[in-house]
Specification:
The complex is a heterodimer of chains A (322) and B (72). By secondary structure, chain A is mainly β. Chain A has helices spanning 3-16, 222-230, and strands at residues 38-40, 51-54, 60-66, 75-81, 91-96, 109-118, 129-136, 144-145, 148-149, 153-159, 167-174, 181-188, 200-210, 233-237, 241-243, 246-249, 254-260, 270-278, 282-289, 293-299, 309-319. In chain A, the strands form 4 sheets. In chain A, strands 14, 15, 16, 17, 18, 19, 20 and 21 form an 8-stranded antiparallel β-sheet that branches. The radius of gyration of chain B is 15 Å and the shape is elongated. Classes of the chains: A mainly beta (322), B alpha+beta (72). Strand 18 of chain A pairs antiparallel with strand 3 of chain B.
Chain lengths: 322, 72
């Protein structure tokens, strides 16, 4: 790109109202993976903020992969039909944007940009391989189902290339003033035959921004990206020692712990307790959370202890996704 | 609508207190969350409409496919 063209694009972006914090997509570079890096038949959130669904559910894998030298990006999400699978049903990767963050998009032209490539055995065609900008007129924060919102949704789609080399793709659409929430998705459907070992698509560098021009991907630091993700999900435990004070309740050995979340969560989170206990087998009791913190009790008989921390086995996960 | 498989849903209660003779005493219990197994994982779901798991529990209850048991 020439310097003159770059300056012209910059002026256009300025007119559209966003020179910084342009990207409404979180974890667009697919770096943050608090839940793990490989998921079998997930039907749920996978890499942070990215949800995958397959109609009929089974025989697919989502994983974080290396891009293999794509300039500016080290990681991508791979959505793969398992080798030997004979189902042809759709597999989608989507990210709904929280309603509070959509105000700048409503009534505007927006542009989605991303990088995509497919595996050597990719078995569907561009007609059935689609990127989408979706919106809903629903007034509450909701999630997405395949390539659209779960109610009152419209999905504006564009075909994607099916090259085994990385392709840069952009698409623009106008979000009507009646919209309340916006999201993006990538969908492969009508897969054919028996899946080979490399029947997949990979996506990275996803950016959704106001305006009719795709600007270079806005790289945030890993810490910034992680903090944005933790508004929707975070996990603690897994053998980590937490130094935290507790209140010893009335001589019965009930220790009452409170931990503040790393950031304020989107909504009151669900607590997922994966066999969590204090080292020694003392189970977690009476867990409860707000958008700001989580509290729980541990019953350990006796009052003469002087611990000021807790070593958790298993983990606690806090989830406030859409 | 989501694709969640929800089983063994039970309300969890917490005590409410009243001040009697300048002391806090338990005056009753109120539902504060739902314990359920969702997609094979045990979860504690808050009674918050903005929470996607609670929204799905309500949808399945309304559809007649799920019953949330009273607190034990």
């Amino acid at each position: 790109m020439s310097k003159a063209r770059g300056l012209a694009d910059l002026g256009n972006v300025y007119n559209d109202g966003a020179l910084s914090n342009r990207n409404l997509v979180i974890n667009g570079a697919m770096q943050v993976a608090q839940r793990g890096t490989s998921y079998a038949d997930p039907q749920n959130y996978t890499l942070d903020r990215w949800k995958t669904l397959r109609y009929a559910a089974a025989n697919y894998t989502v994983s974080q992969q290396d891009t293999g030298g794509l300039s500016g990006f080290t990681k991508c999400t791979r959505v793969q039909r398992n080798a030997g699978d004979t189902q042809n049903t759709a597999i989608a990767l989507n990210q709904p944007v929280e309603q509070k963050n959509c105000n700048s998009l409503i009534g505007k032209t927006v542009t989605l940009s991303f990088w995509v490539r497919v595996g050597a055995n990719f078995s569907t065609t561009p007609t059935n391989f689609l990127s989408s900008i979706a919106y809903t007129t629903n007034a509450t924060d909701i999630g997405m189902f395949y390539d659209n919102f779960t109610s009152n949704g419209t999905s504006l789609a564009q075909q994607m290339p099916t090259s085994t080399s990385w392709s840069y793709v952009t698409m623009s659409a106008t979000i009507p003033s009646s919209a309340k929430q916006v999201g993006v998705s990538f969908l492969g459907t009508s897969w054919s035959g028996t899946a080979g070992a490399n029947d997949y698509y990979e996506i990275t560098g996803v950016q959704l921004e106001v305006g009719d021009t795709a600007t270079p991907f806005e790289h945030r630091s890993y810490g910034q990206e992680l903090a944005l993700c933790q508004r929707y999900y975070y996990k603690f435990g897994d053998g980590t020692y937490f130094k935290g004070n507790y209140v010893l309740s009335s001589g019965n050995g009930l220790r009452e712990f409170t931990f503040t979340h790393p950031t304020t969560m989107r909504s009151t989170p669900t607590i997922i307790n994966s066999g969590t206990s204090w080292s020694g087998g003392y189970g977690i009791q009476n867990q409860a959370a707000t958008i700001h913190n989580i509290g729980f009790n541990v019953l350990k008989a006796g009052t003469g202890y002087t611990e000021t921390g807790i070593l958790l086995t298993g983990n606690l996960q806090l989830e406030a996704e859409l | 609508m989501d694709n969640l498989v929800i089983q063994d849903a039970t309300y969890i209660q917490s005590p409410t207190y009243a001040i009697v003779d300048n002391e806090a005493v338990v005056s009753g219990y109120t539902n504060t969350s739902i314990k359920a197994t969702i997609d094979g994982q045990e979860m504690s779901v808050p009674l918050d409409l903005a929470n996607r798991h609670y929204a799905e529990i309500l949808r399945q209850v309304e559809a007649g496919t799920l019953v949330v048991a009273a607190a034990e």
